[in-house]
Amino acid sequence: MKYRRLGRTGLNVSVVGIGTWQFGGEWGRTYVQSEADAILDKAHELGINLIDTAECYGDHTSERFIGDYLARHRREDWIVATKFGHHFNHNFDRSDRWSADEVLEQLDASLRSLRTEYIDLYQFHSGSDERFDNDKLWTMLDKQVAAGKVRHLGISIGSNANVHQTSRATEYGASAIQVVYNRLDRVPEADVFPSCIEQDLGVLARVPLASGYLSGKYKPGAEFANNDVRHRHDAAKRESLLRQVEEIRANEVPAGVNMASWALAWCLQHPAVTTVIPGCKDAEQVAANAAAVELVAGGHPQDV
Question: Torsion-angle region of residue 91: left (phi > 0), alpha (psi -120 to 50) or beta?
Fold first, then answer.
């Protein structure tokens, strides 16, 4: 495994992390604790130390799986990132929770679910600019940092072009940006990434496999189950993405190279990107994701 400095946080994170939206049950299957344990055990074995979750991956469901695991292992071996701003009602349905008081309640609920005394990176979760520009909210969060409940603040931007929130990260005390970035979606390269580099912000690239389209497993015409989030994607757009993937496979992926590994390494070559946080349904996919480090060249600005 390779590690990079997560911007001004000073945290050294594995260049491949673990995304855990799937633990909430919206990716076509539900999980039990033993299955979550197997994923996290494999991650630890391979040197992965970053877990990204959220308050609304289920009603703190993902966090509880992680918390049960952390309670039985060394907490200090892990860098845990979670988020705030939403309440899970049921699959694909959330309610906003953005007031300072509501977010404080969410923070305490996340700490209980994660069974930890602190969160390493606490992230504003894809909220509007109006919700973001709330001095009372950020003042409350600064107090939680001072109290030791949170080590660092971050922003998970909802729009890949949201320079408004990115450019104010330092002003609001945030040290990291999470953004969708992959070979099929390069929007952050234009404005978001230059701002991150200028401010020395860590960057977590989410959806680095484009919701699995870049995994190499799906061909044009592929269908997804009704309980899979990809089933909700526009059919014409889905087919267009699958055809783009075929072109990328034919023209850009070297012969004999696993496409998913290539796609993760492709993200990691950008000088702004610290780490990728792909989801994984089982330990085998954790290992496949971790194999991307073999394709990552040295000399990145954040290498440690």
Answer: beta
